[in-house]
Amino acid sequence: GAGVSQTPSNKVTEKGKYVELRCDPISGHTALYWYRQSLGQGPEFLIYFQGTGAADDSGLPNDRFFAVRPEGSVSTLKIQRTERGDSAVYLCASSRTGPDTQYFGPGTRLTVL
Amino acid sequence: QKEVEQNSGPLSVPEGAIASLNCTYSDRGSQSFFWYRQYSGKSPELIMSIYSNGDKEDGRFTAQLNKASQYVSLLIRDSQPSDSATYLCAVNAGRRALTFGSGTRLQVQP
């Protein structure tokens, strides 16, 4: 079946703007994760959803970051008042149930000018 | 001390040789261990998972786990140029989310 999909693949925005990044998990996967990866580093955990609820948001760096998953499938990561330091690749992963094996989407490369 | 540590490399091996990639972790409660391969500009791709002490083999790949030493390794036999990539070690300490190392860059020389 189809893997995890993410849109857009690339997003360029100006400092201070608002952005939304979308993730569509593998069908039937109840667990969804957001990670952020900077150059030369491994992915860094942001938030984990089990179903519709955020089961663990301890990785969100500050209150400018927020994520939702209203129907337990597609998730949107929202970043307010973007800063240049937010520039990174944002990865989404899903698993059948937590903490099962996670499969990653292609990522969204965010560039804040 | 980082939670998951890997040598950044690059690790350079000739084609056909065995590549050995190592990873140590700090949380003794860690339960699940994963190796992901990441090509430049691409997202991580799962290669192996291992949950209990010992070896687990899958084709040319063998994962080794030693919980007493808090050590995970990945062996790649008969290395090919197409194996050139960054290999990420990831650990699940029962927190659901994975904690990743920074990755080891492997270069297989033709």
Structural account:
The complex is a heterodimer of chains A (113) and B (110). Chain A has 113 residues and is mainly beta. Chain A contains no helices and 11 strands. In chain A, strands 2, 4, 5, 6, 9, 10 and 11 form a 7-stranded mixed sheet that branches. Chain A has a 4-stranded antiparallel sheet with strand order 1-3-8-7, with no helix packed on it. In chain A, a hairpin with a 7-residue loop joins strand 9 and strand 10 (103-104). The radius of gyration of chain A is 13 Å and the shape is globular. The relative contact order of chain A is 0.34. Chain B has 110 residues and is mainly β. Chain B is 0% helix and 54% strand. Chain B contains no helices and 11 strands. Chain B has strands at residues 4-5, 11-14, 19-25, 32-38, 45-50, 54-58, 61-66, 71-76, 85-92, 99-100, 104-109. Chain B is globular. The N and C termini of chain B lie far apart (36 Å). Classes of the chains: A mainly beta (113), B mainly beta (110). Chains A and B meet through strand 4, strand 5 and strand 10 of A and strand 4, strand 5, strand 9 and strand 10 of B.
Distance between the termini of chain B: 36 Å
Percentage beta strand of chain B:
over 45%
Task: Give the rounded overall mean pLDDT of chain A.
Answer: 94
Oligomer classification? heterodimer
The arrangement of helices and strands of chain A along the chain is EEEEEEEEEEE
Continuous helix count of chain A: 0
Largest sheet of chain B: 6 strands, mixed
Q: Enumerate the spans of chain A where pLDDT stays under 50 for 5 or more consecutive residues.
A: none
Strand content of chain A: over 45%
* Total DSSP E strands of chain B: 11
Radius of gyration of chain A: 13 Å
> How many distinct helices of chain B?
0
Q: What's the average pLDDT of chain B?
A: 94
User: Can you write the helix and strand succession of chain B as a string?
Assistant: EEEEEEEEEEE
Topology:
The complex is a heterodimer of chains A (113) and B (110).
Chain A: E1 5-7, E2 10-13, E3 19-24, E4 31-37, E5 44-50, E6 53-56, E7 65-68, E8 75-79, E9 88-95, E10 103-104, E11 108-112
Parallel strand pairs in A: 2-11
Antiparallel strand pairs in A: 1-3, 3-8, 4-5, 4-9, 5-6, 7-8, 9-10, 9-11
Chain B: E1 4-5, E2 11-14, E3 19-25, E4 32-38, E5 45-50, E6 54-58, E7 61-66, E8 71-76, E9 85-92, E10 99-100, E11 104-109
Parallel strand pairs in B: 2-11
Antiparallel strand pairs in B: 1-3, 3-8, 4-5, 4-9, 6-7, 7-8, 9-10, 9-11
